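> tool_call: predict_assembly(chains=two)
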Amino acid sequence: MNNKNTALTAAIVLFGLLATSVLFAEEAMPKAPAASKAQPQVKPGTTPDARTMSAYTQKGADTCIKCHDEDSVFPVFSIFKTRHAQTADKRSPFAYLQCETCHGPGAEHAKKVPPGQNQAPIITFGPRSKLTKDKLNPVSVDKQNKICLSCHQGDDRINWHGSIHANADLACVSCHRIHVAHDPVLSKTTQAEVCYRCHTKVRADFYKTSVHPVRAGLLTCSDCHTPHGSSAEHLLIKPTVNQTCYTCHAEKRGPFLWEHAPVAEDCSLCHRPHGSVYPALLTKSLPLLCQQCHSVAGHPAVARTGDALPGGSSPPSAFLLAGSCTNCHSQVHGSNHPSGVRGMR
Amino acid sequence: MNTTIRLLALLSLMAPSVLALADDTPKIDTSQWKCKFCAFEEPGVTGALDIGIGYVSDDSYKFGEYNGLNEKGGYFIGNAIVRIRAEDAKYWNIDINNAGLDSRSVNIEGGKQGSYELKLNYDELPHNITDSIATPFLGVGGSNLTLPSTWVRAGSTAGMTDLSNSLHPTDLQTKRKRVGVGATFIASERWKYAVSYRHETREGTRAVGSAFFFNGAQLVMPVDYVTQQIDVSASYTGNAFQARFAYYGSLFSDNNTALTWQNPYVSAAGADSGQLAQPPDNAFHQLTAELGYDFSERTRATADLSIGRMTQNQDFLPVTTNTSLTGYPFALPRSSLDGLVDTVNGKLKITSRVTPKLNLGLTYIYNDHDDKTPQATYTWVSTDTNVNSTTRTNLPYSFRQNKLKLEADYQLTGNTRLSAGFDNDKNDRTYQEVSDTTENTVWGKGKVRIPGTAEMTIKLAHAKRDIGNYEALPWLSPEENPLLRKYNMADRDRDLGSLRIQLLSFNNVSVGFGFEYANDVYSHSSVGLTASRDFSLNADMSAVVDAKTTLYIFLNHEEISSQQSGSSTATIADWSGENKDTIDTIGFGFKHTIIEKKLDVGGDFSITNSQGRVIVDAGSAAAPFPDINADFISAKLYAAYKLRDNLTLKGTYWYQKLDSTNWSYDGVAVDTVSNLLALGQTSPNYSVNVVMMSVRYQF
């Protein structure tokens, strides 16, 4: 680790540079106007397209609800059971321009049109806007997300830009449902189903015999992954695989007197976190798993065959059966016993 | 380091290009925006209460592994949702789930939206591992396992004549209980503060192996852990600049320090008992800063830095408990480890839309796990029996990763997008066979959209990992085979590919196909892992048939295989091993409204067949391994009948079956192996029916 200090210094300098330039820049930025029911202003960046599309409605949400009632093609009433419709929270869309906070000016859209003609466009959200020729839905994913991020850019969305989900052209509403009382992706018991819509292989993984309790609804994807971008690979909630695993398996953190090097490096060298056909989420059966890295002369180097199974031509072998290597070398995650050199104490 | 300097220079160049958004915000007259048709929630209490009974037809630890339905018999169904709304955005939400089961949870959150939020939660998470085991040891669940007074020691399990008399069934299970509290304060439009604390206990038992020389015994080890986690954060959300500063603390403690057990075999060298270390108490503290900044409408940078420290300083156990050994008691160079690992994790990312069609991204990742634990030389006693003639020095393994990622994304046409990238991943290690590895990856991705019809994404990547010198570790005795290449530090060629096609041919029907593969070749490894391959095919479909019916189906076929070589003489390879897993999964389900607003029914079905095949070619005729199989079926049917507007009768029938085999366990009784006193665990097999009836009262 001879150049660790220089790398650390460089990282601190980077932070300093970024923070300094930001502080000055923030001063130069116009602050978002305070929301006022009497005379609200459009937040910068909130509805970049809206201003060129049409004027705002005369009566706000009352105009929209005339058509978008509970029986319409696009029912919206459940939004009143959500945080977005809390007028006492000044950050809420309904404390601001109501429906048009997110959907933009709607006067043109609200105009009556002759039978057979489409309404004038309005900002809408969803994958159809990019996957169909529907001219009513021309808003790109990037622009959709900008509208959401104008309020939700902070916290764990800081890393959204350039994240794997952003680069996959996911809209916020690809996963989130806004006009429902309970967004399924925010519930531990229903979240995984949302993720499985794209991650179909992972869904199958959780039907294997050795799994984390996701099918039981006691653990969910966001317990390990942060879908809005992360500093870690695989969108993990902590910077490394091991730090993520230690949030539930802190007993394996150590540091131990006798460390097992691959364990300290990366749990996934031996475990498949989404599911395995072998016990303890292991990548393969023992002793082959251990023999990938241990070939010391003597018993670790010997091929173990079906001959050593019960009823085989050789006596049943402790090197093969039950816990195999771990029958004796049980402290595979590290040992703090002075005599635990080989994981046997 | 050069990479860091280049990033520094790039950032410096970009800093002056900061753009400010013009203050051209129009004013809107909303004096007529009365929102008189808006159905805002009124102050009051609403919610729903599920009360009922369920019945489980059979005992099964595997069926109830996590859901708490492991015992035959009836159980109470209790779920509740309570929503309290008050004036001025004040609220409380209370959720209670699985009140009658070991997987119960209670979540309470409330406060004043936009000002503060408080959280309190409690949950239990069972892990029922197996109930098919037996042991002759007394004191199971404690830290001192003894043998009955009638126990007959022997040189092998066959000679343990009191075994059948002493054997008693037991189980392996753990249960986590978590209590969490948290608070969030929204201090201003831009600043938010949060604090949370979680206290978790995990109690129960697990299996552990133990040995005296080559005589082994599987033991039941107590689990009595406490883990506390603290999160404190301050978040700033500005128009162009966002930041989050956080502290994370994790404190682990184990109420047991060791497991002591009596030697069931004829003692050698006076080793009448042995002692295993339990996981030591440890702590982790971490400070994190995350920054995000929009240099302009087109360019954004984010930077994360986490600095952490892992510590562990639990008093050492004695070198051995065997007082008969010459030299006892053995001196330790220190009384505890004073273990210390400093971690630094950083990431800097810059993305820029250089032109309306071209996006560029640059990411630098730095991960450092610097183990500063002091080294010392230890006398060690192998399995409480043999004082080793050579001492050993502990090895504080350190790891450092420097990774640079470059990517470009170009919108070729309105419906075609191409991406490509290059990753350089450098990993340094200490005290290991290889000090540094470098892996370079090139990848490309294409996304083609046929409007209204389909979207196809294809991604290909090739990676090549090169290592420096591979040097066998000098302190191992006997030394490792010099031809072995540990796979995480071996030369490797990796090919990755994936294809995803999403069809949108019909209204309300979504059909997708996917294909993924990963192929690794360790071309310079003659002993060790030489190749591995993971390949899967999947398809899924969801459809809204009509206003009353929705359905879904998914299929997945996966093959995971690997090849490795071994050498029984610790020289050139003279045997090979192959592992091949094949897993097929199919699932489908439906929801249907039979009587509108009165009777809904639904079902979820899944079948998974998996097969794990192990082939070992030892160079001479040998019996093959039987496959490791698991056939899993789950079928759930449910219905909800509305008795009144606020009263619904719910019924569920659930059938689940698992047939599994695993040669590691099957046929291995406690005394099958002459030098292993096993627990006699068997592969799980069950067929369970569950019936649930409940009423939902809404208020």
